[in-house]
Amino acid sequence: MPQPHTLKIADIFSSIQGEGLRQGEPTIFIRLSGCNLRCSFCDTKYAWRKGRNYTVSRILLEIRKIRKRFPAEWVCLTGGEPLLQDLSELVKNLKKEHLKIQIETNATFFQPLPVDWHTISPKPRNYFYRPEYKSRAKEIKLLVTRSLPYDVVKKIRREFPARTPLLLQIESNLASSLKKGLKYLKLATQDGLRNIRVSAQLHKFFGLP
Ligand code: SF4
């Protein structure tokens, strides 16, 4: 008999979406285990290794249980790097539950999944992203770390369609990161770049997961 499809999951929890343009919306997060990168500033390092195998049916049971007390319309597949694992079965079943699906990815992997919202967040050192995201990304998040060069902001802004917002996300709401983010925003405006904004991590202000 074929074995049911399983995924390694670090956490399933409900909160508001704290980042990006969907900020503030009730969301159920499925945090998948594992990441192909090792960013020094990563705030979910526990997801690199921690995790338990869940069948897709077990994940759906958890989601239904959460929705009884927290009837969110959105599910966010995040990590770690969620696209290290084959998400086709999970996405197909989440669709059957009439959920809207967001994927947050570092963009080094791509799967042709029928999701509603791709958030990409290219990471150092080379800020590589798969070309499929040029037409698919609903938003691009660049974390304003000490090492983020302005040239990367300029390059990525120019490579994506003007309709796709680029967010300079302040690292852990730090004052030094905000200062740098505002400086880059000013430079970008002076360079004629459009659809760039600074953004914060709302859930961290509120002390939410
Ligand atoms: S890509 Fe994201 S999850 Fe992976 S190490 Fe970097 S910040 Fe952490």
If you compute it from the alpha carbons, what radius of gyration comes out, rounded to the nearest whole angstrom? 17 Å
Global outline: globular
β-strand amount: 25-35%
The CATH superfamily appears as Aldolase class I
Compute the separation of the termini in Å: 39 Å
Describe this structure in words.
This protein is an alpha/beta fold. The protein has one domain (6-205): Aldolase class I (TIM Barrel, Alpha-Beta Barrel), CATH 3.20.20. Helix content is 30%, strand content 26%. The protein has helices at residues 46-49, 56-69, 88-96, 133-136, 150-159, 175-190, 202-206, and strands at 6-16, 26-32, 52-55, 74-78, 100-105, 117-120, 137-144, 166-170, 196-199. The protein has a 9-stranded mixed β-sheet with strand order 3-1-2-4-5-6-7-8-9. The chain is globular, with a radius of gyration of 17 Å. The termini are far apart. The mean pLDDT is 96. The structure holds iron/sulfur cluster.
Summarize the structure.
This protein has 209 residues and is an alpha/beta fold.
Features:
7 helices; alpha/beta; 9 strands; single chain; binds iron/sulfur cluster; globular; TIM Barrel; 209 residues
Layout of helices and strands:
Layout: E1 6-16, E2 26-32, H1 46-49, E3 52-55, H2 56-69, E4 74-78, H3 88-96, E5 100-105, E6 117-120, H4 133-136, E7 137-144, H5 150-159, E8 166-170, H6 175-190, E9 196-199, H7 202-206
Parallel strand pairs: 2-4, 4-5, 5-6, 6-7, 7-8, 8-9
Antiparallel strand pairs: 1-2, 1-3
Bound molecules: iron/sulfur cluster (SF4).
